[in-house]
Specification:
Oligomer: heterodimer
Structural class of chain B: alpha/beta
Largest sheet of chain B: 6 strands, mixed
Helix content of chain B: 25-40%
Shape of chain B: globular
Number of strands of chain B: 10
Distance between the termini of chain B: 33 Å
Chain lengths: 192, 184
């Protein structure tokens, strides 16, 4: 499901395709930093990559998909696109995207308009708001999970940490038993 | 096995914006069940956590872990705690620690759900429970066994200040479901 862009790294500065399009990830200068490494990011086929030797700090936003193989601290804001954190990726940031897939480590809140997937190698410490969440066996997770509104429309993305609506109760079997009329009483059922 | 208590819990979740603390590991099925009913679910299965300890993930001193462990600090009280069958792996004095830690995070109306084996033996590490949308419980099995403590419900009730038994349901495999309710 994820594009597999070819990663090429260039020393010293951000690289871009030969025909730079306006749909590129934006990393504000004053709040971003490059700690070390030969490349900041490479993009191809509508996907930006933060390479494994890169550390970025600040708010990163964009109009194309993002793959994180390096370290990011701050905010990743891609409301109309997808974010993928690769196994070597380390993120201390709030993430907003259509789809978010985590195979690395994330410390921050995840807000998705479509789906969050925590893969078995993934570790997340933070809260998740998404209409669909896939938690693979073996993943590590600390935080709360809440469905947001049914949304294929990214305009329904809620502000991270802000208010959100509860998901409509749907797709669940109707309750088959009434709540205890007298909760204080002991009732036993089934075979003994 | 079909749960006799989760239909009641579902009804409870449907009528309140409940916060659920699941001591077990997160799964997609539990997410669908619980969040589909409008609940917010809190999980912690990071290394050194309770759920990892009960599943034998390298935590030797469970009582020490229980003393350090606390439920999540949230804006409101927990509406439901899912303890699965972890009480089968705690001595009564450890349970007392567990409930003391929990007491500040619950309020009148809060519920605790748990299972107790009433067969003579239990797996030596806690099974992993999952929950289907049709109230069916699925759980892993292990070949090695240990003697089941078979804590009686009334004894457990005494360990839980303010809680009393709301509903019990004994399934045909010897697992008894418990729903305790905080009434004061």
């Amino acid at each position: 499901m994820w594009k597999k862009p070819v990663e090429s790294e260039t020393a010293g500065q951000e690289t871009s395709s030969p025909d730079p399009a306006p749909r590129s990830a934006s990393i504000p200068g004053p709040s971003s930093g490059v700690a070390a490494g030969p490349a900041v990011s490479t993009r191809q086929s509508g996907t930006s990559i933060i390479g494994s030797s890169i550390t970025l700090r600040g708010e990163i936003s964009g109009e194309e998909n993002l793959v994180v193989k390096g370290n990011v601290e701050g905010t990743l804001n891609f409301p109309n696109n997808d974010i993928q954190i690769d196994p070597e990726g380390r993120v201390k940031a709030d993430l907003m995207a259509q789809k978010i897939s985590v195979a690395g480590k994330v410390r921050g809140n995840l807000n998705s308009s479509e789906r969050v997937v925590i893969q078995k190698s993934g570790e997340v410490e933070g809260n998740i708001i998404a209409p669909r969440v896939v938690l693979e066996d073996g993943c590590k997770f600390k935080g709360s999970v809440e469905m947001n509104v049914d949304s294929s429309d990214s305009s329904n993305l809620t502000k991270l940490g802000g208010s959100k609506e509860k998901a409509p109760v749907s797709g669940t079997a109707p309750g088959t038993a009434k709540p205890s009329a007298n909760p204080g009483t002991t009732r036993a059922a089934g075979s003994t | 096995m079909r749960s006799g208590i989760f239909p009641v819990i579902r009804e409870y979740l449907d009528h309140k914006n409940t916060t659920v603390f699941d001591l077990g590991p997160p799964t997609s099925k539990k997410y669908n069940y619980l969040c589909g009913s409008g609940a917010q679910v809190y999980w912690d299965n990071t290394p050194g956590s309770i759920s990892n300890a009960f599943h034998g993930a390298g935590v030797d001193d469970v009582p020490a872990l229980l003393k350090k462990w606390g439920p999540p600090k949230l804006d409101g009280p927990l509406g439901l705690v899912l303890a699965w069958n972890y009480f089968d792996y705690l001595e009564l004095e450890d349970l007392q620690i567990w409930f003391n830690n929990l007491s500040d995070s619950v309020a009148i109306g809060s519920r605790i759900y748990f299972l107790i084996h009433h067969s003579p033996h239990i797996p030596d590490t806690a099974p992993l429970f999952d929950l289907e949308l049709d109230d069916v419980l699925r759980y892993s099995t292990a070949s090695t066994k240990k003697v089941a403590p078979r804590h009686p419900p009334k004894q457990l009730e005494q360990m839980m200040p303010g809680f009393e038994i709301e509903k019990l349901f004994l399934m045909s495999n010897g697992l008894q479901e418990h729903l305790f309710y905080k009434n004061h």
